[in-house]
Write a structure and sequence with these properties.
Layout (H helix, E strand, L loop, with lengths): L2 H7 L19 H4 L9 H24 L2
Length: 67
């Protein structure tokens, strides 16, 4: 079961999702040195930072609305 599904099953509200590729050396990929080498990279980190700021801004907007 995915983390998202677990959270929804426990009545959490999902306000956003972010994912990026990561270096993967599972199973037979070890033979080839893995896939997605050098990931997450600088571009991925910039996108993660942007996502985090968007979530923070949405949260504070909702908080101010209820004051």
């Amino acid at each position: 079961m995915l983390l998202r599904d677990n959270l929804i099953a426990r009545n959490y509200t999902i306000i956003g999702e972010f994912s990026c590729a990561g270096h993967n050396t599972n199973s037979f990929l070890k033979i080839f040195g893995g896939i997605n080498k050098n990931r997450p990279n600088e571009k991925d980190l910039i996108q993660a930072k942007s996502f985090a700021f968007d979530i923070i801004n949405k949260r504070w907007y909702k908080y101010e609305y209820y004051l």
